[in-house]
Amino acid sequence: MIENKYTTYSNPLTERYCSKNMSYIFSPQFKFSTWRKLWIALAEGEKQLGINISDEQIEELKAHIDDINFDEAKKIEKEVRHDVMSHVKAYGLQCPKAKGIIHLGATSAYVGDNTDVIQMNEALKLIRIKLVNLIDNLKDFALKYKDVPTLGFTHFQAAQLTTVGKRATLWAQDLIIDLEDLNYRLENMKLRGVKGTTGTQASFMSLFENDTDKIKELDKIVCEKMGYKESYKVSGQTYTRKLDSQVLNVLAGIAQSMHKMTNDIRLLQSLKELEEPFEKNQIGSSAMAYKRNPMRSERIASLSKFIISESISPALVEATQWLERSLDDSANKRLSIPQAFMAADAILDIGINVTDGLVVYENMIKKHIDEELPFMATENILMEAVKRGGDRQELHEVIRELSMKAAYRVKHEGLNNNLIELIIEDKAFKMLNEEEITSILDPMNFVGRAPQQVVEFVEEYLEPAISDYKDCIGIEVDLKV
């Protein structure tokens, strides 16, 4: 077999889709640097509470936070078959004076679980920045097109008119709900803290000679040093795996909203009313040169399905953990959590790109309105005729018959909708002249409060939702493919 960098599987999420920033959060460098920061926080807390640890030892540990000796750790892990102990020993090789106090009193979950929380926390912050930028794009789009009438659709059948901008507020509202969920999760994120092997802190009882106040204080010190308000009040060996499920449910919510939005864009692009950005040299189809496929929206839909499916994994893990812990969570977590985050990062980057360059074809939208509006306008015409003295029941029957005639012409003969011409020509509607009837057909007469709803939505809901993140708005995304 040929052997080179192209003969082993590469993850499309890192190779094609997600940003470098998100990939870094789940990289070995970030992970093991965080382990070392946690070991330093533990040593500093223990020293502060009276354990015999010197400043020199702590300074030695701090000098080697980022220059991780990965090769040594990998070599040791082959011998000891334990990832945490391999890094304890590798860190000790770089810090000979401090090696005896690294990981003092802790269990593997101290670095493993606390780092998992920190990674998810940092990843959620990055997701929030991108989510806010996407919502801001939709705000601008909604305001720009708030007065442009368009056919509404129910069951993908033409329905009462709305506006292009009003439709975009539906997408934005879903994403703001996701932002609210994300903020709640961030505000309530807790570390595992310093809990010991089965969560009883027994090893620290020995270390601190049964001084429970010092043990509780150590937990607080570590949380503060790592930038967190608190840890979970109790744990087994691990923090509750419910947290993983809650976090991925946030990502699944974003994926649902993005999938819905891009479904709409794909349908509208098929109708030629709306189009995602299409670059000068982009190829829509290898066979059909004229095609302009909504490939970015389709990619969002594809990755969104993946995120939604990934959210099931931590739910199953949480449901099946045994007593204080079992290790059937580990391999699953290594896959489901990073990959869900990287996919979520990708769909938001693509979504920012799409919503920043949506093209609206107003003439095509008007053409579709003209084809359907005569049917929708009949009620308004009927009411106006009745106000001029017409008989409601008689006029209703006339309109029904004329509508059936016009519908036959459209569906069976493929001709334009001539219902309004038929009404104008019919003597039953002689109380209205042609100008009065056609004036009723102004599409703006049929959009209700849609334009005002857009303004109210933006001012009362959207702007307040993103106001705290104004400094984050305006990021540039660089799609790899």
Question: How would you sum up this structure in a few lines?
Answer:
By secondary structure, the protein is mostly helical. It is 63% helix and 4% strand.
In spatial order, strands of the major sheet run 1-2
Say how many strands there are. Answer: 4
N-to-C terminal Cα separation, in Å? 29 Å
Question: What is the fold named in CATH at topology level of the largest domain?
Answer: Fumarase C, Chain A, domain 2
Structural category? mainly alpha
How much strand?
A: under 5%
Form type: elongated
Give the CATH architecture of the largest domain: Up-down Bundle
- Largest sheet features: 2 strands, antiparallel
How is this structure best described in words?
The structure is a single chain. The chain is mostly helical and 481 residues long. The chain has three domains: 20-101, Fumarase/aspartase (N-terminal domain) (Fumarase C, Chain B, domain 1, Orthogonal Bundle), CATH 1.10.275; 108-360, Up-down Bundle (Fumarase C, Chain A, domain 2); 364-440, Ribonucleotide Reductase Protein R1, domain 1 (Orthogonal Bundle), CATH 1.10.40.30. The chain contains 19 helices and four strands. The strands form two sheets. The chain has a two-stranded antiparallel sheet. The chain has a two-stranded antiparallel sheet with strand order 3-4. A hairpin with a 2-residue loop joins strand 1 (149-154) and strand 2 (157-163). The model is unreliable at 285-290 (pLDDT under 50).
